[in-house]
Design a protein that fits this description.
Helix 2 runs antiparallel to helix 3. Strand 8, helix 10 and strand 9 form a beta-alpha-beta unit. 46% of the residues are buried. It contains 18 helices and 13 strands. The chain is 43% helix and 14% strand. Strands 3-2-1-4-5-6-7 form a 7-stranded parallel sheet, sandwiched between helices. A 6-stranded parallel sheet has the order 10-9-8-11-12-13, sandwiched between helices. By secondary structure, the protein is of the alpha/beta class.
Length: 410
């Protein structure tokens, strides 16, 4: 049965910046096109317009993937480590990351009770589909006690991280498998479990012993690019500086390709509480800023982000493969939709979905620069092949495809 409304509950939607807005709005607008009334419930701190066609209510004080903990002690430790010689900084960074997690102070999560209250206020949710596309284990731990099965028509939960990650960051009082089995027992057939890649669905279904469907990323991107590569080619790293994103590999690449390529690196703001290796890389990049390197140290609006992707000749995704594993990359999904090739790591979802040219996949940090150099030698043909493949990718990873999956139609 088609629901009367699609209610998207997104505690991570705090502003018009980042992927949360695009995900929530795109699926909401796809619902409207199907004759389903959309409603988005966002963070109580939500800032900025959402859409003329979609109602948005700022509701949640509960956080998604909170980054608290450590305070001045963490800043002092990370700041000191960033100034150590590189080999020593690399050796101390991993235990410091573990310490950062340890220092986090878990708080009582109010997401479930706030969602229940919001559904009671809007009324009639027993005929609606409630979609949770970005929530932590802590967020969903209280759903069974806060919401009666009769309170919703259906509840679609998209699992976008691995079980290990959900038990590590913003964890629930119980293991995530225990939490999800309890939700399945409580909501019965009204609960729809999804994950946004096929490998991730296999991980979750094997661990849970429950069916998990694929929820494709709802990509909304600028038109497929048809232009020839720039001279020199424009190489782009976007999405913010984090250790697992391979940010530390960028200074060496920029230095090595000076004069042969132009770089835009989006880092966001970097401070003393950030990972030591990220701080070191950021200082090195700062020293190279000039005609061949633009360093963006602020959040990007959706328009700026889309324009930057569309202007790229090659996207750099020097990510740590074990960390990402079966998880999706919104940046790769959008690059594929625009027709821009990306250099990606082996042994993860990104390698499976790299597109027409498998030679863009690097195995280990030592191969990264060589794969970038190889891509530069064949950029015109690469861009043509990726532009040709883009329409099929856009159709498979559209808001309409995601909506169909949450409705149980695929």
């Amino acid at each position: 049965m088609t629901p009367e409304r699609l209610i998207v509950a997104d505690p991570g939607l705090r502003s018009a910046l980042g992927h949360h807005l695009g995900y929530s709005i795109s699926v909401a607008e796809a619902a409207r096109e199907r004759g389903i009334l959309p409603l988005v419930l966002a963070s109580a701190n939500f800032i900025g317009p959402i859409s003329e066609a979609v109602e948005c209510r700022p509701i949640f004080t509960a956080a998604y993937q909170s980054a608290g903990g450590g305070g001045r002690a963490r800043e002092a430790l990370f700041g000191l480590a960033a100034r150590l010689p590189a080999p020593l900084a690399r050796s101390v960074a991993p235990p410091l990351r573990v310490l950062r997690r340890t220092l986090r102070r878990p708080a009582v999560d109010t997401f479930a009770s706030e969602l229940a209250s919001a559904l009671a206020v809007v009324g009639g949710a027993q005929r609606d589909l409630v979609l949770l596309h970005s929530v932590s284990a802590a967020n969903i731990a209280g759903l069974a006690s806060a919401l009666a099965p009769s309170a919703v028509g259906a509840l679609a939960l998209v699992l976008r991280r691995t079980p290990r990650e959900m038990d590590c960051d913003d964890a629930a009082p119980q293991p995530i498998f225990v939490v999800l089995r309890a939700l399945a027992d409580h909501f019965g057939s009204k609960l729809r479990l999804l994950a946004d890649t096929a490998p991730l669905t296999q991980v979750w279904s094997a661990g849970l012993g429950l069916p998990v469907a694929v929820a494709p990323l709802p990509v909304v991107a600028p038109p497929v690019r048809a232009s020839a590569p720039a001279e020199p080619p424009h190489l782009v790293f976007v999405g913010g500086a984090r250790a697992e994103k391979g940010y530390a590999l960028l200074p060496g690449l920029v230095r090595s390709l000076a004069g042969a390529a132009r770089f835009t690196v989006h880092s966001g703001a970097i401070g003393p509480a950030d990972d030591p290796m990220v701080q070191r890389a950021h200082l090195a990049l700062h020293a190279m800023v000039g005609p061949g390197l633009m360093l963006l140290e602020r959040p990007l609006s959706a328009e700026e982000y889309g324009a930057l992707l569309a202007d790229a000749d090659l996207i750099l995704l020097p990510y740590d493969a074990p960390t990402y594993g079966p998880r999706s990359s919104g940046i790769l999904a959008e690059a594929r939709a625009i027709g821009v090739p990306a250099v990606v790591p082996a042994d993860c979802w990104m390698a499976d979905e790299v597109g027409p040219d498998q030679a863009l996949v690097f195995r280990g940090a030592a191969q990264f620069e060589a794969k970038v150099r190889g891509a530069l030698t064949r950029l015109p043909s690469l861009l043509a092949r990726y532009a040709e493949a883009a329409p099929a990718w856009r159709a498979a990873h559209s808001p309409a495809a995601l909506l169909a999956a949450t409705l149980g139609e695929r």
